[in-house]
Amino acid sequence: MSFPTARPRRLRRTETLRRMVRETVVTKNDLIYPLFVAHGKGIKKEISAMPGNYNWSTDTVLYEVEEMLKLGVRSTILFGLPETKDEIGSGAYHSHGIVQEAIRAIKSRFPELYVVTDVCMCEYTSHGHCGIIKGDTVDNDPTLDLLARTAISHAEAGADMVAPSDMMDGRVAAIREGLDKHGFTDLPIMSYSAKYASAYYGPFRVAADSAPAFGDRKTYQMDPGNGREALRETELDILEGADIVMVKPALAYMDIIWRVKEAFDLPVACYNVSGEFAMVKAAAANGWIDERRTVMETMTSFKRAGADIIITYHAKDVARWLDEDR
Questions:
Q1: Which domains does the chain have, with CATH numbers?
Q2: Which of 248, 261, 281, 303 is catalytic?
Q3: What is d(CA 230, CA 226) in angstroms, rounded to the nearest whole number?
Q4: Is 134 a catalytic residue?
Q5: pLDDT tens digits for 215-242?
Q6: Can you give the pTM of this predicted structure?
């Protein structure tokens, strides 16, 4: 059937009709909101490159969690800023580390919040890399034990899910084995399976004070030019026991989200990273774009590409806008 009989515009005539036939819909259930926690009391320090996002102490973060829940955002992923750093990132797996204490504080007041924890070493090491340094590179295998210890300590503190982001080979298997041995067989792993060595991480490294002191992370994070390799990395994580797989960043890698979703029958998460967030905020502040329309279009694009879960710094705004659109 062709024009004039076929007229696709018929189904675009009114907002009600457009909603009825919409193929892809963003909901609050899709969202995970990142939080950054630091030692101390009364801390609420805005992150300069990420307007509206803050470094929180374990007391003030409760106010942010309360606001999240009122808006209907029921999941967070926690990142920690330790008091001190060392060569082996011991603050990452200390039983009273900052993330561990934040989990306890949040769960004691808001047990209904679903708490995911980032499992990595970069925020905790004095050199800013994601594992043990040998020579001028990260030594993969000794790092696995520290990652497993970190995940176990998060589980013991009350985390609902762990999310390894380090990109060490074999880390999902090491974490799964460690969790199972300590009785956490039901605790899921959301693996940063296809995590690229991206320029879009800049503001995060300010927020988490995690920039590498030397070199870069290209020997363990993925080359931006590689697509097939993302499928290999994802398959390996699934074979090692990942329950959810992730693509990071999201905006420049929607083709990867699509390929992963088409290839594997697991939930797929994407991380709408700090640089993506900051660019929208900067353009909106200058009046160059409509922030609300741009963000919602982007969220819809992530879901259309195949993402089941969206980690985003826009989560609270998205929740407000969804309420306004009802």
A1: 24-324 (3.20.20.70)
A2: 248
A3: 7
A4: no
A5: 567 788 999 999 999 999 999 999 999 9
A6: 0.95
